[in-house]
Structures are given as C-alpha cells and as structure tokens.
Amino acid sequence: MTPTPSSPSRVQPLRTLYFVRHGQSQANAGGVTMPHADIPLTELGRRHAQALAALLPPAPARVLCSRFVRAQHTARPYCQQLGLEPAVHPLLHEFETLDPDLIAGMDGEQRQPIVAGYWAEGDPHKRMGANAETFAEFAQRVQRFMDEDMPALPDGTVLFGHGMWAGLLAWLLLGFGTDSTLEMRHFRRFQLGLPMPNGALYQLQELSPGHWRLRADVEAMRVVMAVE
After folding, report:
1. How, if at all, do strands 158-161 and 87-88 pair?
2. What angle, 0 to 180 degrees and rounded to 10, lies between the N-to-C axes of helices 135-144 and 163-173?
3. pLDDT by residue (tens digit) across 204-214?
4. Most buried in the list 9, 16, 104, 206, measured by CB within 10 Å?
5. How many C-beta atoms surround the C-beta of residue 95 within 10 A?
6. What is the architecture, at CATH level 2, of domain 12-95+138-179+196-225?
7. Do the beta carbons of residue 103 and residue 124 sit within 8 Å?
8. Which strand (E) or helix (H) includes residue 87?
9. Which DSSP symbol is given to 98?
10. Three-class SS of residue 186?
11. For the segment 41-79, what is each residue's pLDDT rounded down to a tens digit?
C-alpha cells in the first residue's frame, strides 16, 4: 500500500518563531507626521499590547523587537510580566518609505496620495528624501534577516515588529522577487491584502531545515481585534 502523504498542517515543526505586529500607532490613526522611529502607540495601541501579553508564549526563548518605539512599547507589557528586557534587533524596523521632512505637518489623509504615487511609480531604487530607504534596500534588509538570523534563532523566539516588514517576509518566503517595477507593484497589492491588523500574531514554523511556513494565529488576532 502506498503511504498517504502527511497533511502539511500535521507536520511537527522543528522550530516555531512568533511574529507580532505592533499595536495601533499614531500614524495608523492618521496622526501628524513624526520621525519614523518616534511614532508612539495610541491609547488603543497600548490596550492591544496589554491583550497580547496574555496570548504569547509564557516562556519565550528570546524576545527581539524593532528599534522603533511603537514595537518596543508593544513588547513592554509582555516583557514586564516575564521580568525580562527585549533585545533590539537592527533589521526588524519598518520600511522607511518617505523622509518625514518631506511630509512635515501632514496627517494621514494628506500623506496618502504621496504614498500612493510612490508605489504606483514602482521604482525599487527611488529614495524619497535623505531619511528614507529605497525599496531595494528594504528588501535586502528583510532578506538578510532571513538568511543570517532566522537559521540561528531558537525555538520559541518572539519578534515584535511591523506590518509591511512581515508582508515582505511572507512575499519572499513564497519565492517572489523585488527587483523590478512590476514585482514592487505586485508586492504592494499583496501586502495591502494580507490580513495584518495592529496586534496581529503570526507563527513562523520551520517544517524542515530552511523551509518555513507562515501561519496566522487567528484566535489570538480575534481577541486583540475585539479590544476597544
């Protein structure tokens, strides 16, 4: 009798990493432009962080977070209840799409057409001001994390980061490219359609050496999204 292949959902992962998107930030709520790293959580975002603290692993192997304060403040309630300090990771911060100096004083509605125009142009090497990254640099940063850091992270590591960063990780895990205008535009459509609300929780499961599966923790996300 020919054996029946195991269902992918039943494969016991070699390792599981937990990725958390930060709670709602002032920028998510349409607030006035601030430096990328300094954007704080809203009051709702702080409640998202409190809810997440009860949903994450009770004994993480490591806790890593972005250098941006919204990710660090999302990690804070979880780390405080465990009595530990998260380690700031230099590759986990969000895509610095626009130089804040170019959009100073603008709110979310005013920023939207500028952001839309950037993605519509789809130039991976265009830099929108001195304090911004190119899309190519952003992609290289996420790829570097996949190549250099993911293989060494212990089972049970918790990562606090950002939505577009996680979207690009998913895109690269699927095998898509980032080098051309078409690929950049397609990524943007993919990223906007990926369920990644504030406080989202995903699991990165290594099914065999170097082969990863990304799964949403839907029940945890429902709990966080229900916070008011």
Report:
1. unpaired
2. 70
3. 999 999 999 99
4. 206
5. 22
6. 3-Layer(aba) Sandwich (3.40)
7. no
8. strand 87-88
9. B
10. helix
11. 999 999 999 999 999 999 999 999 999 999 999 999 999
Amino acid, res. 29: A
How far apart CA 79 and CA 54 sit, in angstroms, is 11
First and final C-alpha spacing in the chain: 55
Q: How many residues does the chain have?
A: 228
Residue 51 to residues 22, 56, 80, Cα–Cα distance (Å): 12, 9, 13
188, amino acid identity? R
Read off the tokens for 4. Answer: 């029946």
Whose structure tokens read 């699991």? 203
Structure tokens belonging to residue 33: 């432009």
DSSP assignment of 81-110, as one string? HHT--PEE-TT-SPP--B-GGGGTT--HHH
Structural contact between residues 18 and 157, judged by C-beta atoms closer than 8 angstroms: yes
Confirm if 139 and 178 have CB atoms less than 8 A apart.
yes
* Single-letter amino acid, residue 107: D
Q: What tokens were used for 52?
A: 């997440």
Pairing of strands 15-21, 158-161: parallel
> Can you state the percent helix, strand and coil of the chain, rounding each to 5?
45, 15, 40
pTM > 0.85: yes or no: yes
For residue 144, give Cα distances in angstroms to 137, 138, 190.
10, 10, 21
